[in-house]
Amino acid sequence: MKKRGASEGQPASQLVSKRIAELGDWRGKTLSRMRKLIKEADPDAVEEWKWGIPVWSHDGIICTGETYKKVVKLTFAKGASLKDPARLFNSSLEGNVRRAIDIHEGEEVNESAFQALVRQAVALNSAGNAKPSKKGKS
Fold this sequence. Notes:
Layout: H1 12-23, H2 26-41, E1 46-50, E2 53-57, E3 61-67, E4 72-76, E5 99-103, H3 111-129
Antiparallel strand pairs: 1-2, 2-3, 3-4, 4-5
């Protein structure tokens, strides 16, 4: 299922690698580092290509990886429901559902805290997909 979200006949992982290479600057290096951390935190995460950006999923979206001129933005689909004691979330804080981490040139992200957020997001997604039926036993 690695081809899910592919376009132009390319697997999503190739499209993500292509985006990283096209950036060719600190943003590509940052996106590549965050991609590696996501895969380490959840080896079963599926890399997808949606809306023209990388998306990492496991029983639902974990986060997206957007790149802009001055920032790499990692948006957690259910970030408002995650505990963030290291206060990594620094963007999209006003919303009821999403939260994002904006990484600027030269900034370092606390790797263990980031991976803890990824694992929490996966656990939240998995719990949502494992809800018992509300119907009584037959």
